[in-house]
């Protein structure tokens, strides 16, 4: 009976998490930050590992994959969920491989010989039972959680390397990572920040009030003035929702315009994004890339007469191609966009790209 | 305004010398008349003007008998004004012998109309003699001058074309000398000075920033005897944003001027051509205080002034007025109405069936073009892009939907989402600058940028009367700052920026205009044809030759 209780308890938690995901997707931006989502996902996956019934690594991976599919289906735009699932799958593979004794590298190298002789070997590999696998996996997930907790601080610590004094920095919307980044630099340096308000949700206002409370000279501008003031800006520092596998971004709408304006003025564009936002997806799937919210934000119902005759769009995300980005700052350091593919292959196993 | 005491604008000498000495009784008179809201009497004004001129020229020698000669007839009337601008006069003097020459005949001619007792030539000769004496003595002193370089424009010898034009006041807000000059000018014209509001972003401290809640009309008595009521109404409409848009403002201005001209009567011993121009100056100052003049308004005013001063003195008043009203009507008709028709015809050639056209904000010309194209049965659909805080695109949306054109509506942050579907971008302009830059509503340059990145052609539609000789490369040096409180928004019951004024390190910036570089613009459609952006100075030159 305790097993059954655990199972129902577990499924309740999963259901509750799914409901939260579904609810969080509608309305003004995320209800909670991406970092929180990542941590909750990882905690949930740890619980599943601990409480679900499985005997071999393959079973565990199946269970996690199944739950992962459900979670990503609940909120497709919330890519951190999928990223965490893939990270955990990679952890399981690694721990399994370590217990088996084979080194990681030989397993991962796809040599011609291996392709021709083995073929389909990888599936059978995960059927063996190891008693210490559970403990190892849980420990590794704990490490992952610790890493997740420290990402914002890690990124903020690098702030002084990138901001000099008397700079004019531009940002758009509200990103907790960028906020911590700028506040950390402001402890030692004096600079000026221009925040684009990012209509229609105007998260930029909140960002500006928060920055000004830290005694940073802040100016709020309307989105329409981005190009007009860009000539006086030294750096553009933005956060993003997702980093795609080609080095591009899926960021809040208005970022593409900002990136183009920065490119025109040869202003460096720096993206502060923790590693859990890196997704192995590519931007080609047009119908799943964009997410729309209620057009009431753009054209309110008070304009009733014309509403029925007009198409109104309110997209949430923008695609920014990697050519417009100068630098990624993440918790593991700074990287060029051309290096992102390497990081993807380090974090995720190629077979997990499709859950 | 059929007063006997017609207002006479004193000649505006570029540098005004004020001293804080004596003459209290007359000061009280002036003070009292100002607080009464009554116009200064003609005599008082003449005295004012004379006194200032004398102080400027005869400062070092107060006991100059030449000056006192003039005042014998009228009596001395020094004016006590708060600032003391001692250092202003010398550079004016030291500049060149020709400098006082243009002033002297002008001063002499106006003073001659005041005092028919002395002849023009006599006055001129007297003045010149005095000035020569003064200059000789001043040249030795060589006091440094702190005048803004703009006033030196008159100092340039008249053989050369004056290259340095007078820098407009509204971009010199950070220069206290310029502000004082403006304050004095306004005081003379009896127009209140509008005070700036809120802490400005440091990059824009050279521009004014007014609050919509404090219109200028609160500071003048209504009905005002100084300013014509239609002008007061117009000023209020401008400052509250009721009349907005380049064409609308110009047309409203011209209609108000028609009203002014109709109500105008020439005072005795005055010439209509000169007096009317002087009468318009305080109106223009007032409108400038309500909202800085646009380039199109500036051109219209220049045209009117030219027409007025071209009225021959033989003309009777009624005829002159009819002629002027006709001129204004022709101007509106030619430059705005007919121009719009011609531009529509050109633009419709560029619209083909199946087009998706993107427009930004509410430009009367672009709306006109689209409606005309729809009448001519072209099949297209329109994407209207709008931006906070003005949200003018909603007005354009209403007009187009009423005609039956199918429209899409997005905010400017979504423009990179919608642009791949768009085949052409039509933009309106506020002014076209001589170096090919397009000055338009803020956000236009952004749309042109993204369109260029997506290889979508950008067409700007602009009438030729909006072309101006200024050059500008960025949106900072000359712009307009709107009320910063417009950016504040309440979402879900929370207003984040509510007390932005109390936080010292927080600033709000609400720009009105920006400049688009010519490489983003593919074509400019004007009433003279379809030209590239870089041909603007050619058009200006041709226009100047014509005139």
UniProtKB/TrEMBL annotation, chain A:
Pfam families: IF-2B. GO terms for cellular component: cytosol; eukaryotic translation initiation factor 2B complex. It comes from the Eukaryota. Transmembrane segments: none annotated. Component of the translation initiation factor 2B (eIF2B) complex which is a heterodecamer of two sets of five different subunits: alpha, beta, gamma, delta and epsilon. Subunits alpha, beta and delta comprise a regulatory subcomplex and subunits epsilon and gamma comprise a catalytic subcomplex. Within the complex, the hexameric regulatory complex resides at the center, with the two heterodimeric catalytic subcomplexes bound on opposite sides. Acts as a component of the translation initiation factor 2B (eIF2B) complex, which catalyzes the exchange of GDP for GTP on eukaryotic initiation factor 2 (eIF2) gamma subunit. Its guanine nucleotide exchange factor activity is repressed when bound to eIF2 complex phosphorylated on the alpha subunit, thereby limiting the amount of methionyl-initiator methionine tRNA available to the ribosome and consequently global translation is repressed. This is Translation initiation factor eIF2B subunit beta.
Automatic annotation (TrEMBL), chain B:
The gene is eif2b4. Residues 1-159 are annotated as: Disordered. It is found in: Cytoplasm, Cytosol. This is Translation initiation factor eIF2B subunit delta. It comes from Clupea harengus. Residues 47-59 have a biased composition (Basic residues). Gene3D superfamilies: Translation initiation factor eif-2b, domain 2 (3.40.50.10470). One of its GO terms (cellular component) is eukaryotic translation initiation factor 2B complex. GO terms for biological process: animal organ development; central nervous system development. Component of the translation initiation factor 2B (eIF2B) complex which is a heterodecamer of two sets of five different subunits: alpha, beta, gamma, delta and epsilon. Subunits alpha, beta and delta comprise a regulatory subcomplex and subunits epsilon and gamma comprise a catalytic subcomplex. Within the complex, the hexameric regulatory complex resides at the center, with the two heterodimeric catalytic subcomplexes bound on opposite sides.
